[in-house]
Each structure stands twice: as structure tokens, then as C-alpha cells.
Amino acid sequence: MSAPKKLYIKTYGCQMNVYDSERMAEALAGYESTDTPDDADMILLNTCHIREKAAEKVYSELGRYKGLKADKPDLKIGVAGCVAQAEGEEIMKRQPMVDLVVGPQSYHRLPELEAKARSGQKALDTDFPEEDKFEHLKSRPKAKRGPTAFLTVQEGCDKFCAFCVVPYTRGAEVSRPADRIVSEARDLVERGVREITLLGQNVNAYHGHERGLAGLIRALAEIEDLKRIRFTTSHPNDMDDDLIAAHGDCEKLMPYLHLPVQAGSDKILKRMNRQHTRDDYFRIIDRLREVRPDLHLSGDFIVGFPEETEEDFAQTLDLIERVKYGSAFSFKYSTRPGTPAAERDQLPESVKDERLQRLQALLVSQQRSLQDAMVGKTVNVLFEKPGRLPGQMVGKSEYLHAVHVESDTLIPGDLRSVRIVESGPNSLKGVLN
Ligand code: SAH
Ligand code: SF4
Ligand code: F3S
């Protein structure tokens, strides 16, 4: 028997791409994974198209493989993910060394595409097929795994925010049936997983369970050895009553919610086609905090959207002041071809830069004070791996803070009560209770 071929996958973008990369590696059964491109027989870039820089990274990475391909003519290079979907054949025109292009909804066809590429032909599939890719993927391997896992439950988006490529790259909203998700979750738990993060571009629009995402969360909470449930990313308009209530009464649902608002001025929210006002957002947060006062919030912000005035931007800062985020991601608006906002008059780069700096300074200081406020408190930590120093283990609190503890007895997967004694630059230090 010949040695298995080696597969190197590089993942960009969101957590869903992390999940997809795992499933793509599993789909290519004749390969074993390698963590360097140097000895690979196939390189697959799982790409992101969300901002211009993200897409450009792919081409510069491909440029780096020229030498490898020259030394090893059998090396196959593939592009998967959202750039593959958005640019399709263009990728092969711009980078002729690419053998294979596969979109996020057709990667169950990877084995055939790989065979086609091996036979020397160009292989391309960016369909949005009728069939559900998950039903056509091989069943997942039984190997032991770490304590945390992602699990995609919903894909695609029907919201069409004026800045965003996701509805075009991932297609329409589709939910996986709840029974399939519960059985995949059971399987993950049998393999050692203790915390599952449910993924979707609009995860709270999930409708594969008759009671929506809250129904699915409650069904998953029945799995005894599953200790923690999280979900991301949510849209404010899909935070229904049941899901809000679940934050108060479902113990396994962690008190941390990523709820992007993007901007704080009603004018900009409208121009972004977000379909809600700043007050709607405040109301949702008030209701969540009523049932779960210790909830930590996280968000995404875009600065420098077309027509954003200094006054509009001040409204975003004001919204942040009121909400107080535990963490957040913020970006300068980036024009994306084919989206409505790309056609509008753009703000100068210098204005975007300056606003991003002010916004990030505020977010960092909030993050800092929420993290520092953990000192003296008791949290639950799910330990994931050894820390950098000997005798140290690191895990995450329910609020997603990284926590270091000195201990010789802890192992990955342990869930323990920890008293926080110190707040460092990026993590907390604690002692076992
Ligand atoms: N589905 C999620 C987010 C998907 S994209 C949601 O609706 O919130 C992740 C984040 O990237 C977005 O929340 C937004 O803040 C940012 N983003 C999307 N398109 C962008 C663009 N054209 N320029 C800058 N940031 C963008
Ligand atoms: Fe993009 Fe808006 Fe859909 Fe989120 S809700 S994926 S930002 S279009
Ligand atoms: Fe990027 Fe696609 Fe995710 S564009 S953020 S990889 S859905």
C-alpha cells in the first residue's frame, strides 16, 4: 500500500470556515493532514471574501506556492470558501497554477473534484446544489478530540445588509434538521467534547426545530456530558422571546452573546439595511439583562460607512458607552463589488482610520474594565490545554475569558470552579476553589 497523500488546509475568515475545513479534510479520505505546505500533495485555501484585504491575502498566499509547485509538479492547489464562490473561474485566470475551485455549498463533491484535478484537468464547482451537502458527506471519524467544538446548524443569509457579501457567497438561509444536529452533537460528546458552539451566519434565524434555536438548544442541553452551549452569530431581529428566555433558564447556555449592531445611528442603520433601530437594540439588551444580569455582550462595528457624519459616528460611540461590551470586533468599511453600498460616495480613508482608532480605544477600555472586574469573583472554567509555563492549564470562563491556573492534576475537559486572583494583559489568573 502506498503512503497516504498529505493535505495542507489554510483557513481564513469566520468560525464556519474552521468547521468547513474539518469537514473538507474528512471528505478527502485518501489524505492525511499536515501542518506545513512544504510536504503537501494538496494545498487547499479555505478563503474569506468579507473585506478587500481578506480576499487579497489569498492571492498573495498563492503567489508563495509558485516555487513548491515548480519543484513538485504533482502538487495540486485548490481554493475553497467564499472567494471561490465569489470569483469562481476568475481565480484560475489570475493564478493559472490553481487546479481546483470549490464553493462553500458544494464541497461534498471534493472527492470527484480532486480526482479530476489529479487527472490533469481544471476542476470547478461553485453550484448551490439542491442536495444538502451534510447529507452527502461521509460520517465523521470517531477519533478522540479536544473539549470544544464548532457545529454548523444554519447557513446563508437572506438579510442583504448593504455592505455584505455573505448572501452572495453562502446563498439563502438554510437550517439543518434538529435530529441530525443532535446526533452529530452526541457523537462529538462521545469523542470528548464538552462545549459546543452552534454556528450560523444568522444562527438565531435557525428554523430546523419547531421552536427555533431555543428549541434546539434545549434539546442539546439534554445530552448529559455536554456541559456548555454557545451560539454565533446572531442578528438583533431574530432574538425571539424564547431565545431571550433561554438565557435565563437554560443553565448550559453560557452568559455570553455576540450580537452585532454595526452602527449606532438610525440613519446609518437604515442605509445599511439593518431593518432595526438603535432603540430596538437597546430593548433587546435590556430584556436579556433582565433574565441574565451577568450577560457579557460582544459586537461587530463598521466605521466609515458611506454618508457617516461625525454626528452619526458619535451615536455609535454613545451606543457603545451605554451597552458596555465584554469584547468586540471593529472594521473600516470596505467596498465589496456587487453590494449596494459599493456604488455610493465613499469617505476618505483618513476619516475611516481616525474613527476606527477612537472606536477601538473605547472598546479596549471597556473590555479591560470588564476583565479587571473579574478579580475576586468565582467563575467556572472549562480547561482546554496546558499553558505556556510548566504546571499550568488554561481554559475559558463562561464569559469566554482565558483563565490560567497552576495545577498538576487538571486535564483538558475538566470543568472547575476557579477564583480569579489577577487580571493580566490578555488573560486572567485563578486558583481552584
Ligand atoms: N452574520 C453576521 C456577520 C457576518 S460578517 C452578522 O450579521 O452580524 C462579520 C462582520 O464583518 C460583520 O458583522 C461586519 O461587522 C463585518 N463586515 C461585513 N462586511 C463588511 C464590509 N464590507 N466592510 C467592513 N466590514 C464588514
Ligand atoms: Fe451579512 Fe447582514 Fe447577513 Fe450578517 S445579516 S451575514 S452582515 S447580510
Ligand atoms: Fe468570510 Fe465567508 Fe465567513 S466571507 S466571514 S468566510 S461567511
Quick tags:
globular, binds iron/sulfur cluster, Rossmann fold, 35% helix, iron, pyruvate-formate lyase- activating enzyme, six-stranded parallel β-sheet, five-stranded mixed beta barrel, binds S-adenosyl-L-homocysteine, alpha/beta, transferase, OB fold (Dihydrolipoamide Acetyltransferase, E2P), binds FE3-S4 cluster, 4Fe-4S
Please tell me about this protein's structure.
This protein has 433 residues and is α/β, with parallel strands linked by helices. The protein has a six-stranded parallel sheet with strand order 2-1-3-4-5-6, sandwiched between helices. The longest helix is centred in the C-terminal third of the chain and has 24 residues. Bound molecules: S-adenosyl-L-homocysteine, iron/sulfur cluster and FE3-S4 cluster (F3S). The site of FE3-S4 cluster has 14 residues, from α1, α4 and α8.
Number of E-type strands? 19
How many distinct folded domains? 3
Helix-residue proportion: 25-40%
Through-space gap between termini? 53 Å
Strand content: 15-25%
**H/I helix tally:** 15
Identify the CATH homologous superfamily of the largest domain: tm_1862 like domain
Second rung of CATH, namely the architecture of the largest domain: Alpha-Beta Horseshoe
Largest sheet: 6 strands, parallel
- What is the overall shape? globular
The bound ligands are: S-adenosyl-L-homocysteine, iron/sulfur cluster, FE3-S4 cluster
- Catalogue the unreliable spans: none
* Helix/sheet category: alpha/beta
Overall pLDDT metric? 96
CATH topology of the largest domain: pyruvate-formate lyase- activating enzyme
Radius of gyration: 22 Å
Keywords: 4Fe-4S, Cytoplasm, Iron, Iron-sulfur, Metal-binding, S-adenosyl-L-methionine, Transferase, tRNA processing
Function: Catalyzes the methylthiolation of N6-(dimethylallyl)adenosine (i(6)A), leading to the formation of 2-methylthio-N6-(dimethylallyl)adenosine (ms(2)i(6)A) at position 37 in tRNAs that read codons beginning with uridine.
Domain MTTase N-terminal: 5-119
Binding site for [4Fe-4S] cluster 2: 157, 161, 164
